[in-house]
Amino acid sequence: MSTGASHDLAFSLVRDSALPLHDQISDEIRRKVRDGEWPQHYKLHAEADLALSLSVSRGTVRRALRTLIGEGLLQQVQGRGTFVTGQRAEPDFVDPLRSMAEELKAQGVAYTTEVLAFGSTVPQQSVAGLLDLSRGEEVWLIERVRRGPDGRPLMFLRNWVSKAAVPGLTAGDVEGTSLFDVLEHRHGVRITLGRRTLTADLAEGQVAQILDVPAGAPLLCIEQITYTDGDRPLEHSDVWIPSSRIAMTSIVRRLRGR
C-alpha cells in the first residue's frame, strides 16, 4: 500500500538546535494533529519505524511520544499501538473483532443486505488520514442497508476500503455477506486489528431517510478502522443503528491483576 508523505513523520530535524530532538518530534506530531493530517484515531507507525524514518534512536521517539501521551494528545493501547486521541474518554473494551454481519449472526438476528452504492472515489481528508493514503489516492466506497425480517432497516453502513489493498473488489462481492468474509476469503486479506468507537447521535438528512426514522430519532453510531498485516490501515466504516430497533451486546472479561 502506498503511503503519502503527509502521513509520514519524516521531516528535517535540526541536529545542532538548542531544542532537543525529542521536543522537535513532539512539535511536528502536534502540528500534524492540529492541521488534520493525522485525524482522531489515526494509528501511528511503530516506534522502530518512526525512529528509522527520522534517523534517531527509539529512545528519542519514545520520549517524544510519552510527552504527547502525558498531554492527552496520544493514547497507547497495550498490544495494539499508539493512536491520536479524541476529546472524550475512550475506555478500551477487549472483545473479538467481528464485522457487523457477524455481530448480527452471533446475536441470532436475521437480516438481508441491500447495496445502495458502490464505486471508487477520492475520500475526504479525515478518511484519507486514517487510511494513510497518498494525496488523490482512491478507495472503494460502499453504502449498504441491512433490514430485519419485517423489512425495516436495522443499520446503514458506509465503508471506505483501500483500493490498493483490495484492487479487485466488486459490487457483487459485498451483496448479502460479511465484508470481512469477502476481504479475507475471496481476496486473501488478513485482518489483524480493529479500533471501534461507539457514540450517540440524532438522525438527520440521508441517514434518517435510509433508516426510515424521523429526524431527531436517537441513533447508535459506530466508527471503525481495521488493519491488515504490518498494521496497515485497510478499511474505515461508519455505521448508524436506530436504538429503538437493535441493541449491541458484548461479553467482556476483566483482566487479572487490575
**CATH-defined topology of the largest domain:** Chorismate lyase
Low-confidence stretches: 1-6
How many strands, what sense, and barrel or not for the largest sheet?
6 strands, antiparallel
Give helix and strand order, one letter per element, not per position.
Answer: HHHEEHEHEEHEHEE
Domain tally:
2
What is the count of DSSP helices, taking H or I runs of 4+ residues? 7
- DSSP strand tally: 8
Give Rg in angstroms.
Answer: 20 Å
Roughly what percent helix?
A: 10-25%
> Which CATH first-tier class of the largest domain would you pick?
Alpha Beta
Question: What features would you describe in this structure?
Answer:
With 258 residues, the protein is an alpha+beta fold. It folds into two domains: 5-84, Winged helix-like DNA-binding domain superfamily/Winged helix DNA-binding domain (Arc Repressor Mutant, subunit A), CATH 1.10.10; 100-242, Chorismate lyase-like (Chorismate lyase), CATH 3.40.1410. Helix content is 25%, strand content 28%. The chain is built from seven helices and eight strands. The chain has helices spanning 21-34, 47-54, 58-71, 100-106, 125-130, 179-186, 205-211; strands at 74-77, 81-84, 112-121, 139-147, 153-162, 191-202, 218-228, 232-242. The strands form two sheets. It has a six-stranded antiparallel sheet. It has a two-stranded antiparallel sheet with strand order 1-2. α1 crosses α3 and α2 (47-54) packs across α3. The protein is elongated, with a radius of gyration of 20 Å.
